[in-house]
Amino acid sequence: MTMDSESEESLMAAYGAGDRRAFARLFVRVAPKLHRFFARAFRDEAAADELMQTTFLKLHHARHSYRPEMPFAPWLFTIAVHVRRDEWRRRFRLPETAGEEAIALADQKAAVERADDHARHEDRASAVRAAVAALPEVQRVVLQLHQYEGMSYPEIAVAIGSTPGAIRQQAFRAYEALRKNLAPLLAERATAGRLD
Fold first, then answer.
1. Under 8 Å between Cβ of 12 and 26
2. Fewer CB within 10 Å, N or C, the chain?
3. Which pLDDT score is estimated for 33?
4. Model confidence at 90: pLDDT above 80
5. Amino acid 195: pLDDT
6. What is this structure's pTM?
7. Who contacts 9 (Cβ-Cβ below 8 Å, separation ≥6)?
8. DSSP letter string over 94-137?
9. Are residues 69 and 90 in contact, defined by beta-carbon separation less than 8 angstroms?
C-alpha cells in the first residue's frame, strides 16, 4: 500500500496500535496543514513550528482515544484549535476560562495596537526618508554606501573618485544634518524608551 492510498484514519489507527512508521507517514501528510493553520493565525513561522509540535505532542498523548471510524481531520483540528486558543490566552494573559469571544476582543485590541505601531513606524520611516532625500546627492551616496553597503570611507573614496578625508567630511555633514532634521523623532524615541 502506498502512502497516497493510505487514509489518514488508517495511519492514525495504526499509530494508535503502536506502528511508529505510520506516525512518520501521517506526520508528512498533515504537518504542512497544521503549520499553515498556525501560521495564518499567528503570522509567525517560529510560533507555527512550536504550536505544530505541541499539537503533535498532544496527538501522541491522545492517540489511544482516537477511534478509526471517526474522520481524522476534525479530530486533529480539535486538538489544534485548543492549542491555538491556549496560545492566544497565554499571549493575552487571559484566564483559562476565557472563550473565543474574550480572545476575539483581546485580538481586536491587539490589532488596533499593531495598526497604531505600524502607522507610527511608517511615520518615522517617512520622516527618515524625507531627511535623507533632503541631503545633497554626494552625501546621500556616501551615506548609502557606508550604511547599507558596508563600505569603508577609503573604499567609498575609490568608488566616487575622491579622498578618504573628503568622504569623512561628507559623512560627518550628512550625519549632522540627519541628527538636526530628525531631532524631534530621536527625542520621541528616547522618551518612549525611558517609559518602557
1. yes
2. C
3. 94
4. yes
5. 46
6. 0.56
7. 68, 70, 71, 72
8. --TT--HHHHHHHHHHHHHHHHHHHHHHHHHHHHHHHHHHTS-H
9. no
Alpha-carbon distance of 45 to 36, in angstroms, equals 9
Q: What ranges in 68-99 are assigned the alpha helix state H? A: 72-92
List all residues 6 or more positions away from 167 whose beta carbon is below 8 Å from its beta carbon. Answer: 142, 153, 154, 156, 157, 160
Q: Is 138 exposed, middle or buried (0-12, 13-18, 19+ CB in 10 A)?
A: middle
Between CA 41 and CA 55 the distance in angstroms is 14
Neighbours of 192 (CB within 10 A): 10
In sequence order, what are the residues at sequence separation of 6 or more whose Cβ sits closer than 8 angstroms to the Cβ of residue 166?
157
Q: For residues 45 and 47, what is the distance between their CA atoms, to the nearest angstrom?
A: 5
CA gap 37, 92 in Å, rounded: 19
Retrieve residue 66's grid coordinates. 482516537
Task: State how far the Cα of 180 lies from the Cα of 84, in Å rounded to an integer.
Answer: 47
Number of Cβ within 10 Å of residue 55's Cβ equals 24
Location of C-alpha cell 550628512: 174
Place of cell 486538538: 79
